[in-house]
Inverse folding.
């Protein structure tokens, strides 16, 4: 049985090194032969293989550990989780400004806002809270045009106190939190998936019940790693597509 051999990697200096290394390792793990051993080489050997520092290597491994692809044991080493298999979510790296641009445009109407209990869907993001402040908005391309998407934002109460509703009518919550409230947003985790329109979404977006929509979830973290906002946006499936350009 041969040892686990990660793929080689030509690093792109425009992207964080830890991110590129984690992506390469993820591809090697998910594409490995079932009979390959589960134990990974040491941090030092992996760092030498990729030509990065041990600190960068640790950050890359931490990312994979957070995803549940590997487990790390003191004195024993790092192991691929047996359940790791193809079909893990695709994760892409972009900037906060790119997210703001994607969510901007059109005319936004505030449907309502106020305190709400932390639902089961939000519990993993706000484990320290019993209540958040939710904002519900409907966006149209033009004031009298057809609706294009509607959004729900769950925000930490101490931050919601400083959210300007006038600014929220013009800008996405991400921009309001960053530029008005003063939150230092360090990263946003995006998930886009296909769903069917539920009754509320069908009514707000003026589409048939169970018609296809794009469901976007964006989880925003501050510089301490704390979740400050969870955005859930439903886009009309007949008006939006999801396009990604990757630099080789």
């Amino acid at each position: 049985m041969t040892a686990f051999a990660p793929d080689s990697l030509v690093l792109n200096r425009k992207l964080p090194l830890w991110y590129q290394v984690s992506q390469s390792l993820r591809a090697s793990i998910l594409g490995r032969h079932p009979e390959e051993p589960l134990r990974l080489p040491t941090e030092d050997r992996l760092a030498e293989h990729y030509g990065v520092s041990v600190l960068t290597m640790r950050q890359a491994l931490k990312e994979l550990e957070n995803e549940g692809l590997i487990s790390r044991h003191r004195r024993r080493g790092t192991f691929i989780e047996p359940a790791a298999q193809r079909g893990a979510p695709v994760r892409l790296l972009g900037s906060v400004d790119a997210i703001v641009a994607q969510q901007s445009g059109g005319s936004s109407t505030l449907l309502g806002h106020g305190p709400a209990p932390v639902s089961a869907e939000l519990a993993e993001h706000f484990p320290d809270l019993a209540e958040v402040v939710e904002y519900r908005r409907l966006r149209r391309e033009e004031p009298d045009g057809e609706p294009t998407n509607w959004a729900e934002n769950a925000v930490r109460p101490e931050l919601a106190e400083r959210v300007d509703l006038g600014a929220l009518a013009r800008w996405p919550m991400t921009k309001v939190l960053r530029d008005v409230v003063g939150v230092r947003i360090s990263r946003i985790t995006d998930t886009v998936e296909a769903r069917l329109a539920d009754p509320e979404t069908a009514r707000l977006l003026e589409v048939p019940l169970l018609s296809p929509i794009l469901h976007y979830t964006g989880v925003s973290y501050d510089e301490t790693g704390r979740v400050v906002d969870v955005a859930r946006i439903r886009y009309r499936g007949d008006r939006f597509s999801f396009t990604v350009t990757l630099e080789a």
